[in-house]
Amino acid sequence: MSIGTIELRTFTHDDLPAIRQVLLDVHGDAYADQMDDEFVQRFPWFVDHWGGHPGFACVIGYDGQEPVGFAYGAPATEGREWWREHVPTPPADPSTFSVSELMVRPRWRKQGVSEQLHEALVAARPEALAVLLVDPQHPKVAALYESWGYRRVGNRQPFPDSPNFAVMLRDLKASRDR
C-alpha cells in the first residue's frame, strides 16, 4: 500500500523477528536526544512485550528502502480494558485495540506520515475502540490525536518512571461510519 511517496507495509506477531531491529533503529533516531532517559532506554522491552501478543499488528512506512516510522499495538484482553476506570458508563461494545507506539523519524515529521501510519494501523480493526497514552508534556501531540477523533478520558502512570500520561479513547466504529 502506498500513500504519496511513503509505502506502508503491515506486519504481525509472526514477523517480529524480521522487523524488531527496524523498530529499534527508528526509535533510536526518533529519541536520539533522550537516550539517557531510563524509560526511553527500555524500549526494546516494550517491543518484545507488545510483539509477543498474538494479535500484535504493526505498520512500517518506507521511503524507498528507508524506514521512516511505524505504528503498532494489539487488542486489549477482553474484560481487562484498563481505560474503563476513566469512563463512567462503558460503551456496549468495549472491545479495544491498544495503540502502543506511533513514531516518525525527525526527517519525515510534519508531513502527514504519522496520520498515514496510524490510520493504516486502525482502519480495518474489528475492535470498537482504540486507546492510547500521550505524554501531557506534548500538548501538540494530544491535539493531533484529538483531530483524529480521540478524546481525553483521564490520566494514567503505568510505570513508576513513566510520565503520568493522558488516556485518550477513540470510537473506531463511529470513525468507519463517517
From TrEMBL:
Domain of life: Bacteria
PROSITE patterns registered for this protein in UniProt: GNAT (PS51186)
UniProt keyword annotations, A-Z: Plasmid
Gene3D superfamilies the record matches: 3.40.630.30
Domain N-acetyltransferase positions: 6-173
Classification via InterPro entries: Acyl_CoA_acyltransferase, GNAT_dom
Name of the protein in its database record: GNAT family N-acetyltransferase
Organism (species): Streptomyces cavourensis
